[in-house]
Amino acid sequence: MDLFENMEDIYLAIVLAPLLGSVIAGLFGKLIGRSGAHWVAIAGVGVSFVLSLLAYYHLFYNGGEVYNAAVYTWLNSGDLHFEIGFLIDQLSVTMMVVVTFVSWIIHIYTIGYMVDDPGYQRFFSYISLFTFAMLMLVMSNNFLQLFFGWEAVGLVSYLLIGFWYKREPAIFANLKAFLVNRVGDFGFLLGVAAVFMHFHSMDYIEVFEQAPALASVTVNIWGDESWSLMSVICICLFIGAMGKSAQVPLHVWLPDSMEGPTPISALIHAATMVTAGIFMVSRMSPLFELSETALNFILIIGATTAFFMGLLALVQNDIKRVIAYSTLSQLGYMTVALGASAYAAAMFHLVTHAFFKALLFLAAGAVIIAMHHQQDMRKYGGLYRYMPITWITCLVGSIALIGFPGTSGFYSKDAIIEAVHLSTLPAAGYAYVAVLSGVFITALYSFRLFFMTFHGQEKMDKQTWEHLHECPRVVTIPLLILAIPSLIIGAWFAGPMLFGDHFAGAIHVAEGHAVLLELGSHYHGEWYQIAWQFFVHAISHPTVILLAFSGVFTAWLLYIKFPTVPEKFANNLSMIHRLLVNKYGFDDFYQKVFAGGAKGIGRLFWQMGDVKLIDGLMVNGSALSVRWFSGKIRQIQSGYLYHYAFAMIVGLLLFLAVFVHKLI
Amino acid sequence: MISKAEILILMPEIFILTLACLILIVDTFSQDPLRRVTYYLSQLTLVLTAVLVIGFSPEQTVYAFGNSFISDGMSVVLKTGVFVISFFAFLYSHEYLKEHGWLKGEYFVLGLFAILGMMILISAYSLLTVYLGLELLSLSLYAMIAMHRESTTASEAAMKFFVLGAIASGMLLYGMSMIYGVTGSLELGTIATNIESNGDNPLLVFGLVFIMVGIAFKLGAVPFHMWIPDVYQGSPTCVTLFIASAPKLAAFAMAMRLLVDGLQPLLNDWQGMLIILSILSMATGNIIAISQTNIKRMLAYSTIAHVGFLLLGLLSGTPSGYAGSMFYIITYALMSMGAFGMIILLGRKGFEADELAHFKGLSERSPWFAFIMLILMFSMAGVPPFLGFWGKWFVLKEVVDAGFVWLAATAVFFSIIGAYYYIRVIKFMYFDKADSMTAIKASKQMRFALSVNGLALLILGLMPGALLAICVSVLSIAA
Questions:
Q1: Around Cβ B437, how many Cβ atoms within 10 Å?
Q2: pLDDT for residue B478
Q3: Does any CB of chain A come closer than 8 Å to the CB of residue B419?
Q4: Low-confidence stretches of chain B (pLDDT beneath 50)
Q5: What pLDDT was estimated at residue B300?
Q6: For range A638-644, the mean pLDDT
Q7: Cβ separation of B226 and A74 shorter than 8 Å?
Q8: pLDDT at A244 over 80
Q9: Across residues A598-625, what is the average pLDDT?
């Protein structure tokens, strides 16, 4: 088929279509109007989605080859090549399909959600720009472009969290997100720089090829202590991932980012951008495999995030924040999988999570629309009567999230738990306990949200109640579309993604770490056979399922059967409750120590350094003196010819003196 | 004696000379107050000569007329640059002369003669040819400046330029005679080999100093720069534009031919001189520009500062350094042309938009041209990603590679000072209120050409590789 002859053009189109949509919607928004803006943005991302599917088909079913080439060289400077290039293999093409699909659905949903917003065109421009940035990140074949995409998604995220720029909390949140991400990005940049310093290349493949040879190299960072180069690089890169994928202790920005409009929470802060860190580590698997130190580090961070952030979701009352903490916890699961070298399981969970978390967010958004932007769950209740579609899709999302057998989340989460179980790394024991107890917590907070919102007493005010109705179709159809993959995609992909050759070549696992391979030895056959074996395994080893069900049951007891109990808990265990409500004090600590400290130092420097020294003495002082000087020496330019000629003669004599008579 | 092949090498020069004479005659019989025939014929001549230059470009370096004329990669590139830039300059000039009502056919004829002078200068390979090209160029320029006879400032400018130019060319000639006296040859290649074999003679450096004065004068390096502000400000803007663009390429070629082709063995000496010239130029140019209120005069000092930067590449003494300089000068010519074009665009009959204040609030009057001017100013200041940044970048890189880190640091220091007056123009355009909201009145061609001019800086800035590759390839062959 000649359709596949020019794959490069297709890849370029995938990237450029959303960019074009963004530019048109952004710069000519007034000209094309509101509907024009959403059509052009949706068309751009739609084209991108269809072409991504095509690329997917080409790579998996059409015998297409992995594509790795530079499409544009900006500049060469020594070893450093500033290039735009694509590496399209199984890993990136999977991400491309997920990103463009979720983004596309959310574009459509946005029409309904943002319908009254004055910044309509701007919003579409931003989300298309985000899609472009994310695709650049995912499709990159070199570290530099990765960094570009990395920063670009960060930038758009900043713009979108602060989309309602007149709201004080939104501005606070976007600044916070930006600053916390800076910390992560700094680590990331150090990692990239270390790669360049030791590998003299920015190209993935070249770096990966050289990596084994440098596995035992050590470097001195300070003092005489020598560090394994690989560990340094991997931990630096992972710090970047911790910022972007909101891992403890750099997680503080994600819950606050819920100040942005809900479609953004769904697209950026659940389904795509926050998975950039997971994707990046999977992409760098040939490097991470060489450092057990880094893997242990990742396991600990991931497990801590998975468990402790899940706990926080239990005490939140803002519907979006509950989902935000749930996202943190699920990202922790993915990180744990990375640490256990089960990259494929992490990617698998990333994919399934993208669907059901986007679904949950959009369902929450639908509820928020219906409740007139009231986000407090204590003011909800009994909504299932009025919003049946939202109710059923939210239920689908929740059971997928808790890993109800048969749903997508079931396969991906089970795989992670089993993989951690099999891992032999020292930190794996802790991680296993954390992810296992996380299952209970997940079920508890998910169904707490579900019951508080859709069941129990109706607690909304009268005015809201009178206008209560299901959302328009532009909102509900995306929910339904997302519900389908949330249910079935897991069964379909579990076999090939986890144990098959879905990611062959793209992900590298070292001999001793091959937990998924070991796990896979118990599963055989076609996809439906493997799906069935998962099922059987879950029934015969019922710990996970029992934990999940007891979570749901507890939620039912606490929020439907005996709704007064949670308050008693809170009163009797006020220490713990306060700890959770204060989010373990991370936010306050950062706010006081780092933000406050930085402000204090800033004020000091501002007063002493800037106002007095720099502004007063250096900038204004030097500007004044240069200006004065300038005014003086322009007098030399007197306009008299003989002065000019004289200057020339002086110049000549000077040269003669210096160079002929060697006076100096 | 003279072979057919040699004639062919000079074909473009012969062609442009013939056409220039022809146009002079045609113009005499022309009744058209807009001088359309003259103008279009001149533009056609430029295009055809460019085609000839590129068409006859030799695969390797060839010499003609007893080695007094050379045609190599550098000459082809620089001449092509001269034609492109002059094409735009003629277009802008035509607009200006039409608007201000003293359109004369001689302007274009003189322009063509000046271009012929530049071509000869670019291809000169003997001291005599260098001098011949230089004088042809200079004499045409004197006349062009003085053409507007009612303007006293123009006459004054022409007078100053002429007298100072005469002094400089006298010194150049004196220096040449010294070199000839020592080496016994006028041909640059032979001069180089003779100096190489005969070694030290104090008279060589003595001659070099005088030659350097000539070069520095032509380029406008401090302290031989005095003519530049007065001439730039005093001349009609279209002439300033012409002087400030294409002849800079010729002056660069002159420096290359004399210093690199002819006096390469004296590298140590002329390197030292260039360092002095460079620092003085960057310092004087950038500092004095700050206190200017007239934009033509400000651009004159900016030219001086740019020349200082240009010299950095030359003094690094390596082919890649020369390539960096060549890139720089082409970049500079494009920017300078655009900036003066902008002054022409804003001017109208009886009004020259040559004060900085005239740029106030331009973004309200014309957002598009304010944007073009923004590109031009940022490019001149060396802000990425515009072309001007790359010019500075490549030159600085060469200076650092040549071991003069301190010099590079000095250059950066002065260009930071320089950024002030470029950005001030932007501030005027975007943050100040306009004094008058008169609409911009200019022909479509003018608007189009100026837009192309400005956008070229952005687009070439995004992909500077091709232009640099050309500069590097032609100079590495030459050296």
A1: 9
A2: 47
A3: no
A4: 478-479
A5: 94
A6: 83
A7: no
A8: yes
A9: 72
User: How far is Cα A241 from Cα A236, in angstroms, rounded to an integer?
Assistant: 9
A653, A660, A661, A663, best to mutate vs chain B, most B CBs in 10 Å: A660
Q: Could you tell me which residues come within 8 angstroms of residue B200 by beta carbon, excluding any fewer than 6 positions away?
A: none
Does the pLDDT at position A29 exceed 60? yes
Q: How far is B458 from chain A (nearest CA, A)?
A: 14
Cβ pair A627:B291 closer than 8 A: yes
Q: How many helices (H) and strands (E) does chain B have?
A: 21, 2
Chain A CB contacts of B217 under 8 Å are 648
Q: Which residues of B touch A648 (CB under 8 A)?
A: 164, 167-168, 213, 217, 223-224, 226
Q: Map A247-316 to HEC letters.
A: CCCCCCHHHHHHHCCHHHHHHHHHHCHHHHHHHHHHHCHHHHCCCHHHHHHHHHHHHHHHHHHHHHHCCC
- For range A76-96, the mean pLDDT: 82
Whether residue A35 is predicted with pLDDT greater than 80 in this model: the reply is yes
Q: Is some CB atom of chain A closer than 8 A to the CB atom of B434?
A: no
| CB-count burial class (<10 Å; 0-12, 13-18, 19+) for A193 | middle
Contact yes or no for A655 and B464 at CB 8 A: no
The beta-carbon neighbor of B229 closest among A76, A637, A650 is A637
A76 touches B: beta carbon within 8 Å? yes
Question: Is it the case that residue A204 has pLDDT exceeding 50?
Answer: yes
Q: Report pLDDT for A78.
A: 67
Q: Does A27 touch chain B (CB under 8 A)?
A: no
Checking phi first, is residue B361 left (phi over 0); if not, alpha (psi -120 to 50) or beta?
left
Nearest by CB to residue A634, choosing from B164, B208, B288, is B288
- Sign, Cα dihedral of A84, A89, A91, A97: positive
Q: Which of A630, A641, A659 sits opposite B163 (nearest CB)?
A: A641
Q: Which chain B residue is nearest to residue A629, measuring alpha carbons?
A: B287
User: A526-542, pLDDT tens digit by residue?
Assistant: 778 888 888 888 888 88
CB contact under 8 A, B205 and A660: yes
ipTM of predicted complex: 0.88
Query: CA-CA distance, B428 to A15, in Å (whole number)?
Result: 38
Question: What percentage of chain A reaches a pLDDT higher than 70?
Answer: 96
Gap between the Cα atoms of A365 and A354, Å rounded:
16
Whether the per-residue pLDDT at A221 is higher than 80: the answer is no
Asked whether residue A635 carries a pLDDT value surpassing 80, the answer given is no
**Per-domain boundaries in chain B:** 4-478
pLDDT of residue B91: 94
User: Cα–Cα–Cα angle for A278, A281, A284, nearest 5°?
Assistant: 150
DSSP B264: G
Residue type, B138: S
Q: Identity (one letter) of the amino acid at B460?
A: L
Chain A partners of B464 at a C-beta cutoff of 8 Å?
A: 75
The neighbouring-strand residues paired with A76 are A81
* Structure confidence at residue B449 (pLDDT): 92
3-class secondary structure, A75: strand
| Comparison of pLDDT for A570 and B474, the residue scoring more | B474
User: Which tokens go with B232?
Assistant: 């730039």
Which chain B residue has its CA at the smallest distance from A72's CA?
Answer: B463
List the one residue out of A124, A155, A133 whose CA is nearest residue A22: A124
